[in-house]
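input
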Amino acid sequence: MNGASEEDFETKEEDFEIKKAPPKQKSWLYQHTVVLAWQFLRLKWILRRTYKKASREPLRENKVVFLEKNGDEISDNYSLIYEELKKDKRWDIHVHYLRFNSTRARHRIHKEKEFLEDAATAAFIVLNDSFDLQGIIKKRKGQKIMNTWHACGAFKRFGYATADKGFGGNTKQLQKYPLHPSSYDLVTVSSKEIEWAYVSAMGLEDCRQAVKGMGVSRTDVFFDDAFVKGAVDGFLIDHPSAMGKKVMLYAPTFRGFVREAYTPDAIDIGSFYERFHDEWVMVFKYHPFSKNRAHIEERYRDFAFDLTDVPIERLLPVADICISDYSSLIYEYSLFERPMIFFAYDLDEYFDFRGFFYDYEELSPGDVVKTNGELMESVGRVTGDGYDIKIVKDFKEKFMGGCDGKATERIMESFFGKACS
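output
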């Protein structure tokens, strides 16, 4: 067979009618069974034993462990707290990055084990999400655990509050594999008004006193004049076509499940360009979970910018108006007391899939619209002289009452106490 070519082999296969069987597809039931078996093995055997064994070691009183579920750097939920701790060399600070959405399961479990081994001997554990890995943690005597959460307010449902809805797991599953440690010492939220929602969503009925509306650390930057000015100046340097124009921010949340999250694409950029490009520019900021982005044609790129990779805290100060849908960023944006519009073209479907803590249309501090035409009309109306901003101010007072630029200071004192002074 020396010198035989690929074509020779193809001919021989055809001559003898050799047919390759297509790969067998695993049934849905088989795949589902494998997932459940792995979940049990991972959580009830491997990780549980890892934490239990590591807990035999003594606590280290100045050790602080942070967990980042998805990111590969300290997120804004932690950054100010982290920087404050770094100022004092007494602290032994550890940060674990799971990169949950981008790491294969067999590699991720090694990171999970490393986190649990480290956290088991930490006097202070700081979290910002809900995650079945966290449910492995059984708080030890002398240990303190805090969740700074990654969103303000209480808009769309999450955690245990989505049980038996399309977005969430079923109640039995959530009870079997908890999303949080055995108890918390502190869960920071943006106001007293919403403490009840976090008790419900995080299953904290037995330690509801831990949920405190003392403010959200990352909002402190919005009270820093130098930070706000730097955000505006930086935006204009990067986008000179925006000079002298108003900025319209479109920042929707993702659709679907986290692992297959996609971007809503109902905005008609061409229509917005025709109506607004003389006086406005339009900034698109999609959720980081989204796997796709709406295409912006070349002819619109002096008007519309996709700035998804820019941190949201650097975009909110720039925006003269915010268009969103079901995203919690509206709470932070309310601190600027500027108009908001809610482009909720799929409201009924989203309600059935995930739901809300409050009545959506009553909660929303601005027009709720469902078509591009209605949205453009609303932009013209709310930016006019007759618009009453009081609705936004009232919303801010109710849902962001704990955010006054000093939240980090209160959180540090409450959680770390005298150890931090």
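quick obs: The chain has 14 helices and twelve strands.
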